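Researcher: Good morning. I'm working through a list of sequences from a screen, and I'd like to move beyond sequence-only analysis. For each chain I'm collecting a predicted structure so we can compare shapes side by side. This is the next one on the list. No need for commentary yet; just the structure.
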Amino acid sequence: MEEFVAKACTTDLFELGECCRWDNVLNELIWVDVTTGRLFRARADGELIDIVRTYEVGGTLTSLAPLENRSDGWIVARNQSISLLNESGELRELASPEASHASEVRMNDGAADPWGRFWVGSMANDAGEGRGSLYRFHESSGTETMLENVTISNGLGWSPDHRTMYYVDSGPGTFYAFDVDAHGEISNQRLFLQFDVATEGTPDGLCVDEEGAIWVAMWGGYEVRRFSPDAVQLARVKVSTAQPSCCSIGGANGTTLYITTAREDMAQDVLDREPDAGRLFSVDVHVAGRPIDSYRPTLRFDE
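Model: Good morning. Structure tokens for this chain:
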């Protein structure tokens, strides 16, 4: 098994860094700080990170995907809603899946699928068991509920051939796989991996590389793990702080793994021992990631 050690590559600290994505069209790294409602865009070359734009939208900003026309901005999950965020920083709400639970449940991790729809999950603010959902949104069809009774809806990813979807429910430490047809419909939900949260940490955000392997951040576990499509662990990336939250592969060389981390709910004595908590980390893992999927006004299906 390969072993890597990631190093902190920002001086800025983020309370709950999340949704790290490499945009191969703009050649930018993007991520959010959930609890402060900020989105960051950066030029990234290995350990060199140059934040070129910050958007402050308020509330909780939990996930995003770029629009097909990059000048149109991003589709984002914020508070209980799905919105469009343009390059000027203006928001336009599209749907509010959790409006009926506004004081109790918020949106969480999300990603665009290979056909152009936005998938996004939710979780209770107190991480209560079974109170979250997984939704799929497109302007042509509205909001569809894909899964219910999840606890912390989290990482999403698709295999390079678009025939498998991966999905994490962090609450019970459960990692699922689904079969996917040519129109992006899921079936055959099955257990891909089950983690012992108490001893291993909790699976969180993930990314899929060009070889079809899955990298998953282990919240509470001080590492990111790489697994083959048949669930064999291939690599471990050590991180010097407890709460890695998400990961993405890109950068100027195309093979740098970027990892967001969090300071949220960490006691002061732990923060004193882990001064890099909340920083962005990076390490060259010698494999490229899948190109990022975009939200598209017109769906495009496999032939």
